[in-house]
Design brief:
The chain is an alpha+beta fold. It contains 6 helices and 18 strands. A hairpin with an 8-residue loop joins strand 1 and strand 2 (17-23). Helix content is 19%, strand content 41%. The protein folds into 2 domains: 2-108 and 261-269, Roll (Diaminopimelate Epimerase, Chain A, domain 1), CATH 3.10.310; 123-253, Diaminopimelate Epimerase, Chain A, domain 1 (Roll).
């Protein structure tokens, strides 16, 4: 069984966010086996996809697993899957995915750029939870927003880019917080560098201490920063600590387009069958 490792939201190897991608010819193997494979791959997400019968609403069924659990939505592993399908000649034009969060589409341009069409997340202002304030080490928090159920993160606005980059959260404390994760964000210090805002994402409760580039989180970051940057609907986010990647976002009401590149860094064989 062929296993690819793809670095997503980057055009350079060993940057962006790596994802495993496995394609099946027919039905998915048992969930336990999928979870074991994701744990063995040990990346933030491994994507599993299988073709669907022609004539339906979607072309492929798509699922994502962290090393610890299945998740409802994942941007970078969807981009990685679209990159693999295009490279293998299995998809031309828009590809429709049936996933736990609904119908998603991806389209790969001739230059390799992939554009994902995802639902826009809602944002609800909330008070800073005491456990989050403690986990972030008491840094100044400007605002906190709860996201919609299909994302399930807290978006925490910090004072500036430097604070986001230098943040060292208490991951043990975050692991006890009963949400998917925490996204910290701030405006870019210098937009001339080619990005409008920065972010980092922490998901220790799902087995991911820090996710380098979280595509799904940008369905919340897009409306968040659009409202703060003059209503602009096309923005670029830079996410990550040691590894970084760029996500182009285009806000279209209830849908958000996520744009990025991808690089396959490993193409091998999984020797253990279901």
């Amino acid at each position: 069984m062929r296993l690819r490792i793809v670095d997503a939201f980057t055009d350079r190897p060993f940057q962006g966010n790596p994802a495993g991608v496995l394609l099946f010819d027919s039905a998915f193997p048992p969930d336990r086996w999928l979870q074991q494979v994701a744990a063995e791959v040990n990346l933030s997400e491994t994507a599993f996809a299988r073709p669907l019968p022609p004539g339906g609403d979607a072309d492929w069924a798509l699922r994502w697993f962290t090393p610890a659990a299945e998740v409802d939505m994942c941007g970078h592993a969807t981009l990685a899957t679209a990159h693999v399908l295009a490279g293998a000649g299995l998809a031309t034009g828009p590809v429709r995915f049936s996933a736990r969060c609904g119908l998603l589409t991806a389209e790969t341009a001739p230059d390799g750029t992939v554009t994902l069409d995802f639902p826009t997340s809602s944002l609800t202002p909330v008070e800073t939870p005491a456990e989050i304030d403690a986990a972030l080490g008491g840094v100044a928090v400007r605002s906190v927003h709860d996201t919609s159920d299909h994302v399930g993160d807290l978006v925490v606005e910090l004072a500036d880019e430097r604070t986001v980059r230098e943040l060292t959260p208490d991951l043990t404390a975050l692991r006890r917080y009963a949400r998917r994760g925490v996204i910290v964000t701030a405006p870019a210090e210098d937009p001339a560098r080619g990005y409008d805002f920065v972010s980092r994402g922490f998901f220790p409760a799902f087995g991911i201490d820090e996710d380098p580039v979280t595509g799904s989180a940008h369905t919340a970051l897009a409306p968040f920063w659009s409202a703060r940057l003059g209503g602009r609907t096309e923005l670029t986010g830079l996410q990550g600590g040691t590894r970084t990647g760029r996500v182009g976002v285009t806000l279209k009401g209830e849908r958000t387009l996520l744009t990025g590149r991808a690089v396959t860094v490993l193409d091998g064989e999984l020797l253990t069958a279901p």
